[in-house]
Inverse folding.
């Protein structure tokens, strides 16, 4: 009777094949997308348990801010309310999506600490869970955009379809920023509140409550603000503003840089995440 000898698998610690393992994690994680959707939906139900309006509280809060800030800042900045209100409303809605994606993405591994320690799952599942959760919450705010467009008679036409391209860039950035910041915050727990403070500062230096045209000759400095580039790819099509190719190139460039940082950090530190959380 012949004896079957199983092949011996050698592992060299000096060549751990980190990149191959990271790619395998990404592939397996996307293969578990149904689990990520279920976990994201469970998070939303848990967060708003006992609430009558649930995520629609975010919609009401945004609408209240638009009304209050719209009258106040249109008077201070001396901008026509019919021009300023749509700008402010859409900017605040998009900023809420971006800000939530970054702050929650920074805690994506920390918030999944219990699952990571008990169940062997691809780390990509936890990132997808965070991104999908934010998309589901954002879906409650997007109808407010169409209300604003209807009230102020904004009809972008076919150019408005470019919004979905900008939304795709936002989702890609949210995915990789969760890897990048999630790993850093898992290692250094005091980084997460710092990110929250930085987002408040970035809010005021990004054209949200003020218009880019008010910078005058200094408008070129906005190219250094990645948040403005990503936001403008969605905001300009919705407002019927000209679609500037330079802004799209900036957004694609920042997306590529973040992609490289996220994948690089995940490749290098993937094996340590479970110990850091």
């Amino acid at each position: 009777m012949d004896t079957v000898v199983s092949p011996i698998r050698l592992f060299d610690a000096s060549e751990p094949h980190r990149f191959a393992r990271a790619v395998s994690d990404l592939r397996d994680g996307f293969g578990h997308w149904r689990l990520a959707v279920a976990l994201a939906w469970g998070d939303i139900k848990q967060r708003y348990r006992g609430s009558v309006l649930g995520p629609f509280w975010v919609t009401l809060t945004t609408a209240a801010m638009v009304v209050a800030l719209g009258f106040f800042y249109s008077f201070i900045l001396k901008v026509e309310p019919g021009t300023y209100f749509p700008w402010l409303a859409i900017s605040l809605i998009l900023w809420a999506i971006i800000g939530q994606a970054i702050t929650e993405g920074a805690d994506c591994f920390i918030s999944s600490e219990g699952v990571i320690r008990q169940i062997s799952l691809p780390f990509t599942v936890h990132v997808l869970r965070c991104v999908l959760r934010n998309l589901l919450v954002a879906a409650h705010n997007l109808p407010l955009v169409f209300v604003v467009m209807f009230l102020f008679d904004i009809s972008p036409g076919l150019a408005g379809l470019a919004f979905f391209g900008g939304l795709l860039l936002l989702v890609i950035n949210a995915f990789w920023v969760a890897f990048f910041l999630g790993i850093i915050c898992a290692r250094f727990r005091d980084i997460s509140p710092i990110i929250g403070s930085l987002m408040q500062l970035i809010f005021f230096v990004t054209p949200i409550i003020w218009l880019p045209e008010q910078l005058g000759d200094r408008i070129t400095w906005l190219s250094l603000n990645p948040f403005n580039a990503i936001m403008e790819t969605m905001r300009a099509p919705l407002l019927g503003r000209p679609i500037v190719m330079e802004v799209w190139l900036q957004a694609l460039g920042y997306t590529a840089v973040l992609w490289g940082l996220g994948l690089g950090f995940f490749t290098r530190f993937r094996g340590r995440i479970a110990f850091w959380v």
Notes: The radius of gyration is 22 Å. The longest helix spans residues 81-106.
